[in-house]
Structures are given as structure tokens and as C-alpha cells.
Amino acid sequence: MSTHDSDARRHAFIAEIRAVPAGQVASYGAIARRAGYPRNARWVARLLAEGGEADLPWHRIVRSDGRIAFPAGSAAFDEQCARLRSEGVDVIGGRVRLHSGAGEQWLDAVLWSKALPDDD
DNA sequence: ATTTTGACGACCC
DNA sequence: TGGGTCGCCAAAA
Fold this sequence. Notes:
Blueprint: H1 3-18, E1 26-27, H2 28-34, H3 41-50, E2 61-62, H4 75-86, E3 91-92, E4 95-96, H5 102-112
Parallel strand pairs: 1-2
Antiparallel strand pairs: 3-4
This protein binds a DNA duplex through helix 2, helix 3 and strand 2.
């Protein structure tokens, strides 16, 4: 693939990350899928690790099971928990509650007019 | 050219 | 839940 393509993909990822509203979280995989590149969760992670993008809400990205991706107790881990909590997100034991209730999911779909399947 | 490396994920006990 | 396995993908070695 050309550098042009990887660049387009990178921007697609960044756009999806920026699209996650404060107080909500999304998994690495969900970002990749929404950007149109399924199976590239690791790439989203790498992108965030590289940093370089200003004001990117990196703290709203967690693992598919809702857990913080950093080792518990690390500075980054604490920072992410703090940022999420400041947005009203419940972080318990290094894990956030991924709206799992069917009813709640349906409500979210209506309120945010988002697709149900890949919505965390 | 081949192997290793991750801020990952789906599955299976 | 919690732990282990195997698959993914592109960058770094």
C-alpha cells in the first residue's frame, strides 16, 4: 500500500476518535470498524501511542471488554481513569461500564441516532 | 526477507 | 469473571 493510503487511513481513525463524545468511550476495534478498516484495532492503538495529534481524546478509547489498556497503576493508567471520571464516566477496577443493557443500547441508538451493531 | 512487537480482539474453557 | 490461545496488521528490528 502506498504512503498515501496509510495516511488516509490514519486520518480516518483520527476523525473517528475525535467523534467520540465526552462522557462516552469506544473500543479500539470499534474505532477501526467505524473508520472502515475492520481488524485494525492494533493500528489504532499504535496511532495513539505515537501521539503527535493535538487535543485527541485518547482517554475515551478502551479495550473491547471495557478495560483500560495500560497496566494498572502506571501513570498513563491513572491519568486515563482521572480524565474519564472528570467526564462522568464510571471507572471501577480499571474498567468502564460499556452500556450493555439492551434497553439502554436501544435508547442510545435513538438519542444519538447511531447504528446498534458496532456501538460499544 | 524474516522475525518480533504491541494502548487489540474473538473464542474457549 | 478470569486466564490462556490464536489470529491480525503494519512498524521496527
